[in-house]
Design a protein that fits this description.
two-stranded antiparallel sheet; 5 helices; about 0% strand; elongated
Length: about 170
């Protein structure tokens, strides 16, 4: 009834509890059905990668936190140990935020915003926590100058995360 050869572009939400709930059921002509299938597959794979990277970041946070608390407590100064602990804490927070971004793609009004947020969380972990780890271990001030770039990545990631849910959904042509 709603289909023609070129298909109608009427948006109907899929009612499903799996990852495909994000996608809207468009009525594509049969020759384009494989494109939709490919996009769904790519999207699900991307979500799995983001969730796995967040889990790895959280796991490494526990490893580095334990290393700082047990192995480095006699080696590092109190300030360096404090910086090391701060790096571990922020890595855990933003590792969990990366996992949350990966899980909540399907509920966002603008899922691409969450995709960018997830990558910024990962970049922030590398820049912020990584530079604090290196600064704590080496004492080289150059590493401390990289830390604000990681903090900026965190700020923009949280902004994009919020925008993914607050901005209205894009209209399809």
């Amino acid at each position: 009834m709603f289909e023609s050869y070129w298909g109608s572009h009427i948006q109907r939400p899929c009612i499903s509890n799996d990852y495909k709930a994000f996608f809207y059921a468009y009525t594509f002509p049969k020759k384009f059905a494989n494109i939709r299938s490919y996009l769904i597959t790519e999207f699900i794979q991307f979500m799995h990668i983001i969730i796995a990277l967040g889990a790895i970041a959280a796991m490494l946070s526990v490893v580095f936190g334990a290393m700082g608390a047990h192995l480095l407590q006699d080696v590092l100064s109190i300030k360096a140990l404090s910086n090391f602990q701060k790096a571990s804490d922020y890595q855990m927070y933003h590792g969990l935020a990366t996992i949350l971004a990966g899980i909540s793609f399907q509920h966002a009004k603008r899922p691409n915003m969450l995709r960018y947020a997830a990558w910024l969380f990962i970049a922030g972990i590398i820049l912020f926590s990584g530079s604090l780890y290196l600064y704590s271990l080496t004492g080289t001030k150059t590493w401390a100058m990289v830390t604000p770039f990681g903090g900026t990545a965190f700020i923009f990631a949280w902004l994009l995360f919020a925008m993914g849910f607050l901005l209205p959904q894009k209209k399809q042509n």
